[in-house]
Every structure is written in structure tokens, then in C-alpha cells.
């Protein structure tokens, strides 16, 4: 297993280097002066120009420049935002928690509703129930996320006025940021209106979380259904039925834990799509996450924001994909058997 983990870490390092190489090449094709694209400094002084040339090795060949670019980016120097004149690392630290909070809530919703519906679709003898659930998943998978977000905003935000359609928290509430997760920060706050702020934050996250949860929800339902159907034909399930165990006990104690293994794998495969959906959702609902921040940087031609946002999102997707693969291998007996056989 140790050798396998080392191979996964080598894969992460190699993929990250390729990503940085792509960003380095793209930076040289930006329609702007190279020093500005690298640092975000509009009008550098003579001392700043000399420092930039030295840090990024702009006087050397392409290989030397790439090494200098790597040294700066790996040291945490992502430049400053051309718009706000703030370091990109500080802005990323501000917007990333909001994206993680939205993604976690959406994932919890997808699993909480998707797994029971997947079990129901696989175990129900009623054809109408089966077809209805699969029709819901097919519809959810096919609906464009931007249309769904705008429709939910129009119905529940504008026409009914039940839920807010933008932002993360009402501006009337001043909650000190501790973790960066507004739902947690409102609970930790000792303010007199902390309870009201928590309810308001919960209302703000409902529509974007539901919109973002639709795609993983459909994947969870279909994966759970397929896995349960396949597992219920296994010999150990037949043996449990022969011992007189109740069907619900068999499903929950024996079938479901094994069915969650392919569900985990499928969720790992869709991380890229999930991230792209999250960016669209953040823009629609003005959610202050990395997706909306990156799109705003693209509109404003803030080249350091573009590089920093793409680098952060891509590295997170790569890291989480590898971690899910490692977790899948660790909990899947068949994968461990193949792994040890290969070693």
C-alpha cells in the first residue's frame, strides 16, 4: 500500500508540473506585457523591473524562465490582482472557504436524498415507482445548470419571495470570520443576532446548493441503483436471505456498504464537471466563491487572477481525485487484491 501511495503522490506531482507548464505557456501568449501578466503590477518602477527580471529569470532562455516561474509559484508568490492590488494568495484564502461550504452542502444533499432513492429504485417491485425515479434522474442530468438556477431564482426568489437569490449573508449582519464557513461562523459567534444570522445564511445557501446538488444527485441515484441490483444477486446475499434475515437488514448491513464503493468511484470521476457547474452556480447566485472570483477576473482581464484561479481549482480537483482513488482502493477488497498481486 505504501508503494501505491507513493505512485499516487508521484502522479500528483507530475500532473501539477504539467499544469504549471501549461499556465507558463499560456502566460506568454496573453495579449499584454509579460511582466504585468506575471505580477499584476501596472507600472513597475526600475527597481521592481529589476526584481521581476531576477525573480522570473526573464533575461534567460525559456527553460530558465520556466524554472523561475516554478520557483515563484511553488513558493506561494502568485502575484497581485491587477484590479484590487491585493496578493492573489490572500484573495484565494478569502474566496475558497465559500466554495468549499457550497460544495459540501450540495454533496450532503446529493447523498442524503440520492442513496435512499437509489435503494428504492432497485428494491421496489412497482414499475411506476422505478420509472418515476429514473425519469427524475434523467431529467435532472439533462437540465442545463444555468437554466435550473435562473428558474429556481425566478420561482422561489422573485415570484414567491421565499428565499434570497444572491449573496452569502445579509449585509445587516456583521459576523466575525473564524473558519470562513458562514454557517459555522454564525454558530460560533457570540453576537446577539447570531441565531438570526444562521437562519439567514441557511436561507441564502438553499437555492445554490440545490442547483449544484442536482448533478451529483443523479449520479448517486443511478450508481446506487445499479450497485444494489448487482449485489443482491451475490451468493452471500442469498445466504443471508436463506438464514431468514429481514430484507431491510440485508440491504442496510450487507448490500449498501458494498454498493457505496462504486458510488464513491463515480463521484470521483465527475469532480471536473462538478467544479465547472459550481462556477456557473456561483455566478448566477452571486456566491462569493472562487468560481465567481475567477469569472470576474476573466471579464476584467486580470491575468494574475486567471492564473491563480485556474491553478487553485485544477490542483484541488487533481488532489481530490487522487484521494478518492486512494480511498476507493483502501476500502475495496478487489482493488486491494489486484494491488497486492501487482506488487
UniProtKB/TrEMBL annotation:
Its main location: membrane. The keyword Cell membrane applies. Residues 96-328 form the ABC transmembrane type-1 domain. It is found in: Cell membrane. The chain crosses the membrane at residues 102-121, 133-156, 201-221, 274-299, 305-327. One of its GO terms (cellular component) is plasma membrane. It comes from the Bacteria. Keywords: Cell membrane, Membrane, Transmembrane, Transmembrane helix, Transport. GO terms for molecular function: dipeptide transmembrane transporter activity. The keyword Oxidoreductase does not apply. It is a multi-pass membrane protein. Belongs to the binding-protein-dependent transport system permease family. OppBC subfamily. This is Peptide ABC transporter, permease protein. It comes from Shewanella violacea (strain JCM 10179 / CIP 106290 / LMG 19151 / DSS12). The gene is sapB.
